[in-house]
Design a protein that fits this description.
By secondary structure, the chain is of the alpha/beta class. It is built from 16 helices and 16 strands. The strands form 3 sheets. A 7-stranded mixed beta sheet has the order 2-14-13-1-12-10-11, with helices on both faces. The chain has a 7-stranded mixed beta sheet with strand order 6-7-5-4-3-8-9, sandwiched between helices. The longest helix is centred in the C-terminal third of the chain and has 24 residues. The radius of gyration is 25 Å and the shape is globular. It comes from Dioscorea alata (Purple yam). Keywords: Isomerase.
Length: about 550
């Protein structure tokens, strides 16, 4: 930081002693929900986590891990591991997702980054393709952002633009697609009047075309690929408004499940297949339903379905959709610029740090924790250990994952007394929860609980302090529910499994022999979220947090 007078030095806390070893455990995908048979954490044997909740009520509470608490735009936005670890490590709330896109569009910064420079190379000779959800739902995308992007790229040299629309009906009312397509067609007609060759090239419903997630059904992505890239679909129309209206006449079809269609010229030829020399932007800001299409557009080696053609294109996402896979490698809006993280402060104040997880979450407990920054702050004070995750299998096959190995590494680090903070992520609840396998997720939760016990036992031995929390929900609710909370059934009467994250709060518990007497959670931070954890941990290390950090969750009451 260039500001004069800035210092990394933290003030000593008058009520918290220095020098205690802190075991900091993040349970991935571990929220708090009503106990029922779809709550795998409740069903599983989790004696350690249960005892933290019932044993010391002043030292256990819930914190918010979704929506505005982690920088996402609305309270309907579920948390995720990236924004969760950003908040846990940074101690402040940074704009994420849609909010970042809004800021980048408003400032024009979106057109100054390397992502835009990269796709702009194609504007002279090629076509710019925009693929995404056409909706004002604000969950995955927003129509007004697409409108601003169309205006911006056409003012900056895009001469030929094709939009591949996905209709919504899930985050907005069914049937609203017609109005959205009419609005877009009107905007494209205005661009054509200015000499830009702009039109809709293809379409389909979000749940049937392109927007699958968690590798649930690659056929969904293939239907999109065929229409968008190859210009092939079972339905051909001369214009998109007619397409949507006509396809909706079939009672089986609704906006979510509209079959794929392509727009053709008078000769019956598709108006906008993606070919060599073109640029592609996926304009959704939410990641989960863009990762699969991003793989198909970006990966040279890809054998999940036959792409038929793999055009030489320049592809960028609106954002980077997967920080672990670095996918896509080019994106229009950069992640938040997070400075002065708790990890950097603590290392500057001599706190020796050990961090460990297995591959799938190693980046979360290091890179994302440290504000999207790779490597060590000071390699003489830090050690990061990555345990290789199982590969070539889905995580429900080995639901214990590497929880035991992570716990043993943490235990050894604690008992070595070489470290002041030992930080781990236990991925089981999240990674196995995403498979939708309820029985396996129960096994996963039990394994994570056993791992927590190993770490807490080590903290007990060295007279240290533990902090156990989570980054977002998942395993605590494995069924889709209606508005009144009842499980939804499919047409065969089976429950509809929920594989996603949730909107639930997550627990945080503190304790251990090193915790000063009289420490308890404050009652005056009822809406505390993940970002409040950093100041809390700094206090436990014996420091006062920086003044702009979110408030600490703890206080000391004199007995």
């Amino acid at each position: 930081m260039g500001t004069s007078g800035f210092s990394w030095k933290l003030e000593d806390h008058p009520k918290f002693p220095k020098g205690k070893t802190i075991g900091l455990v993040v349970l991935d995908g571990w929220g708090e929900a009503n106990p029922d048979k779809y709550n795998c954490i409740h069903v599983a044997e989790t004696p350690t986590m249960d005892s933290l909740k019932t044993g010391a009520p002043d030292r256990w509470r819930l914190v918010r891990a979704h929506g505005k608490a982690v920088g996402l735009p609305t309270e309907d936005d579920m948390g995720n591991s990236e924004v969760g670890h950003n908040a846990l490590g940074a101690g402040r709330i940074f704009a994420q997702g849609a909010k970042l896109v809004d800021l980048a569009l408003a400032s024009g910064k979106i057109y100054e980054g390397e992502g835009f420079e990269y796709i702009k190379e194609c504007f002279d000779a090629g076509t710019l393709h925009l693929i995404g959800l056409l909706s004002d739902g604000g969950v995955h995308s927003r129509l007004d952002q697409l409108q601003l992007l169309l205006k911006g790229v056409s003012e900056r040299g895009a001469k030929r633009i094709r939009v591949h629309v996905l209709t919504d009906g899930r985050d907005v009312l069914d049937g609203s697609s017609v109005g959205f397509v009419e609005t877009l067609e009107n905007d494209l007609a205005n661009l054509r009047a200015k000499g830009v060759d702009a039109q809709i090239a293809s379409g389909g419903g979000r749940m049937y075309v392109t927007m699958d997630r968690y590798e649930n059904d690659w056929g969904v992505v293939k239907r999109g690929w065929d229409a968008q890239v190859l210009g092939e679909a079972p339905y051909k129309f001369r214009n998109a408004v007619e397409a949507v209206k006509k396809l909706r006449e079939d009672p089986k079809n609704n906006d979510q499940y509209l079959p794929p269609f392509v727009i053709v010229d008078e000769g019956g030829k598709a108006v906008g297949p993606i070919v060599d020399g073109d640029a592609v932007v996926t304009f959704n800001f939410r990641a989960d339903r863009m990762v699969m299409i991003a793989k198909a557009l970006e990966y040279e080696n890809f054998d999940i379905f036959d792409r038929v053609r793999f055009p030489k294109i320049r592809y960028a996402g609106m954002l980077q959709y997967d920080g672990e896979l670095k996918l896509p490698s080019k994106y229009l809006v950069s992640p938040p610029e997070i400075d002065r993280t708790s990890g950097e402060y603590l290392v500057h104040n001599g706190v020796r740090t050990f961090a460990c997880s297995e591959t799938v979450k190693f980046g979360h407990v290091t890179f994302f924790w440290n504000g999207n920054r790779s490597g060590y702050f000071n390699s003489s004070l830090e050690e990061y250990v990555e345990i290789p995750s199982d590969s070539g299998i889905t995580f429900n096959v080995e639901p214990k994952m590497k929880a035991l190995e992570i716990a043993e590494k943490a235990r050894d680090a604690i008992l070595s007394r070489k470290f002041d903070q030992v930080r781990v992520n236990l991925p089981n609840g999240d990674m196995v929860g995403h498979t939708g396998d309820i029985n396996a997720t129960v096994v996963a939760c039990k394994a994570a609980d056993e791992a927590v016990k190993i770490i807490l036992d080590a903290i007990e031995q060295v007279g240290g302090i533990y902090v156990v929390t989570a980054d977002h929900g998942n395993a605590e609710d494995m069924v889709k529910r209606n508005k009144s909370g009842q499980p939804l059934l499919d047409k065969n009467g089976n429950i509809q499994v929920l594989t996603s994250h949730t909107l639930q709060p997550v627990p945080i518990a503190i304790g251990g022999p090193g915790l000063a007497p009289g420490v308890r959670f404050r009652k005056d931070v009822p809406d505390g979220g993940l970002a409040n954890v950093a100041a809390t941990v700094m206090n436990l290390h014996g420091f006062v947090a920086p003044s702009d950090y979110e408030a600490t969750l703890i206080e000391v009451v004199d007995n």
